[in-house]
Amino acid sequence: MGRDGTATEHTATEHVDVLVVGSGFGGSVAAERLAQAGLGVVVMERGRDYPPGSFARTPAQAARAFWAPETGSYGLFDVWSFRHFDSVVASGLGGGSLIYANVLLRKDEHWFVERQQLPGGGYESWPVTRADLDPHYDAVERVLNPTPYPLEHPGYDDVPKARAMRTAADRLGLEHFLPPLAVSFAPEPGARPGIGLPIVEPDHGNLHGATRRTCRLCGECNIGCNEGAKNSLDFTYLSAARGHGADLRTGHEVRTIRPSARGGYEVDYLRRDPAPDGPPADCVPVRTLHCDRLVLAAGTYGTSGLLLRSRRHLPGIGAALGTRFSGNGDILSFAVRTKDAHDARPSSVAPSRGPVITSTIRLPDDLDGQDHSGCVPPGRGGYLQDGGYPAFVGWLVEAAALPRDAGRAGRFLLRQLAAHAVGDPDATAASLTGLLDDGVLSDTSLPLLGMGRDTPDGVLVLRRGTLDAEWSTAGSAQHYARVRAALRAVSEALGGRYADSPHWLLKRVITVHPCGGAPMGRNQREGVCDAFGEVYGHPGLYVMDAAAMPGPVGTNPALTVAALADRACTRLLEKRASGEAASPDAPVPSDAPVRVLDTYTQHSSVQFTETMTGDCVMGASDPRAARRSPAREPLRARLTLTIDDIDEFLARPDHPARADGWIEARGLGGRRPVTDGEVHVFGRGRTPDHRELRYRLFLTDDTGTARTLIGVKDLAPAGLGRLWPATTTLPCVLLEGHLSANEDRTEGMADIVAAGTLRISPPAFLRQLTTFRTTGPRAAATLARFHGFFLDELRRIYGPARLLG
Ligand SMILES: Cc1cc2nc3c(=O)[nH]c(=O)nc-3n(C[C@H](O)[C@H](O)[C@H](O)COP(=O)(O)OP(=O)(O)OC[C@H]3O[C@@H](n4cnc5c(N)ncnc54)[C@H](O)[C@@H]3O)c2cc1C
Ligand code: SF4
């Protein structure tokens, strides 16, 4: 039994050549390439599979279509709401391809910058070029078979929004084209397009064993294609991977990873049971698998979260972990009530007709060396695309407009009353027609999507074990101003009114293209992994998904994610062929002793936030001397300390707590997030009667250079009068690099960048007392245990007779 009384499950330890975590654009490519080369591949995907016809369409189905394991819902849409932005990603066999808009574009050649200054400081750097990727773009395109929307083919020629986008671009002098879409418009490549025709399957068939039909223009691509017309990854790469022997496991969620003592990696995972009467999420047993090579392809949030959660097992993992996050410049707006240029009559754009995206307008980049159009100022490049939606959304649009169109609603009510009075049975149809205003609003209004090269200045961190993102649109203000100007120009060129998405009122965006978090870089300071996705210092561990992007792709990113994974697999297989083993092969016999981990029990946690102010001197090395220096500059910190498990905290002699938050100093380039932090609360001191409060905080300065802030309060036995100054004053030094616990204790190991002192003021201390929070069972007892521990330690140091009797 587990500690909480839940059952633990005994499973034989399993060994595989390669474990691929996640089945999106990176994971599917990796599974197919590696299985095809003869490696034993297991794919673990947390979501379920979605054959054609299984995507939610009714309100009851939609209610369970979200990924919310805490409520027992394991659906397709994983919605994140961070402090300054929102995001949607997918969960299912095929990852983002199940709900994406099918656009497969290559990243522009000049946008693979080698070292480009960013607007707010720091730089963007891609360790690969377009020439490196072109053969891999070719390879992926051969499988996903993207083709421009066949606008001139009978049957597919009546898609007004595609023509409207072309018209707008022509009027504005902007570059326009029909982007390649991974959708089957014809039964097989080269055949004549036609609506609703059975699609000819490749030799490996499809893993669902389902009949697919060509696109019928329903605009439902973002909620899953029930026709099977999208060339999504389940029909293509994953079906081929299975044909080569890959084992595709749905409902398998990987929780932590660690290097194994016998080489390779051990991976802990849960099996999610979608049955309504399956075990509750907090009682699911944890199983462990061993692999020689581990490919992380769980997407930006999945992979970054896994690495952050497993960080303590991955010594020396790059300081860049969590960094270079961006939303790929995504922004949504609307062209409302478009009109004909000649007679100013409403002009249909029919957003529900056609695939979700049909057209692209390209905004040049300063790097392209092209002339800029008058409607867009110079800047970093971007793309605009038409948006579409299912027909039922059109009804919602009309309904949502009614309260604002009081005249129309009032006329409807009056007509109904009059008809009732005179007993006119035909009046309802007529007044309903008036009520819907001929559906003009939804028929003449078009969602417009913008994206581009925003600033990759975001940081992903863990808070209370949950992933959080520190990123806002503020750092990319120039990008958003430019793209919105272009979107406005397009709306007006269509004779419509420009409208921001309501989110923008709060300067928020919803990104569907998150990038970064485990970026590739030329060295360990710059990236978590190299240009082939292999994690620095951890051979055989790969990042092959959008988390590896060192900046925004600028265009829709899926093709670049897939091409980079294809390139990484080529390198992995070359290394294997040259005999460079990822780890000594140590297959475990199937009757080996069972390895069982505890279930994930619900721990009791404590959390509080402290705010400290003080000063520091750049270049100084002694905090005491720095206090008198005329070169002092302000130093501030706000840290949230989290004790995830009060039992473990009390049991360990160093009493560790996690620290999240920020440090602010001019010499750091402003306020910088703490990407990983630990505080030892009353750990062992220099002698048995000393205690130590030791802070070790990782951050990067505004140039991306790694720094560690070490602060130590040495608490020596003394009278009560020393209690306040000793416990509220933190002498600290800022060191070069990210230093492990052993390194930061070694005198002279690291270069000191600055020294200073942080203090908690009496008002800040009072505020801190209001910030205590607990989670888990027995909240009051947990808090009492923490405070009891704290007071006991103070009594030990400052004397029982003098402190609280
Ligand atoms: C609505 C929408 C429209 C889009 N349209 C386009 C478009 O037209 N063109 C384009 O290029 N891009 C588009 N995108 C973006 C594109 O889908 C992503 O860039 C792409 O899917 C990223 O690929 P990936 O391999 O990094 O991750 P994903 O494709 O997101 O795959 C990650 C997979 O890992 C699984 N996973 C996560 N955590 C775990 C875990 N712990 N254990 C096991 N499995 C796990 C997830 O369930 C998921 O299936 C769109 C996205 C959305 C949401
Ligand atoms: S428009 Fe409809 S049929 Fe065509 S790909 Fe999209 S969801 Fe499938």
TrEMBL record:
Cofactor: FAD
Recorded coiled-coil stretches: none
Domain (Glucose-methanol-choline oxidoreductase N-terminal) ranges: 214-310
EC code(s) of this entry: 1.1.3.6, 5.3.3.1
Boundaries of every Glucose-methanol-choline oxidoreductase C-terminal domain copy: 510-565
Keywords: Cholesterol metabolism, FAD, Flavoprotein, Isomerase, Lipid metabolism, Oxidoreductase, Steroid metabolism, Sterol metabolism
Pfam families: GMC_oxred_C (PF05199), GMC_oxred_N (PF00732), NAD_binding_8 (PF13450)
GO MF assignments: cholesterol oxidase activity; flavin adenine dinucleotide binding; steroid Delta-isomerase activity
A biological process term (GO) from this entry: cholesterol metabolic process
Pathway annotation: Steroid metabolism; cholesterol degradation
Family recorded in the similarity comment: Belongs to the GMC oxidoreductase family.
Protein name stated in the entry: Cholesterol oxidase
Source organism (scientific name): Streptomyces formicae
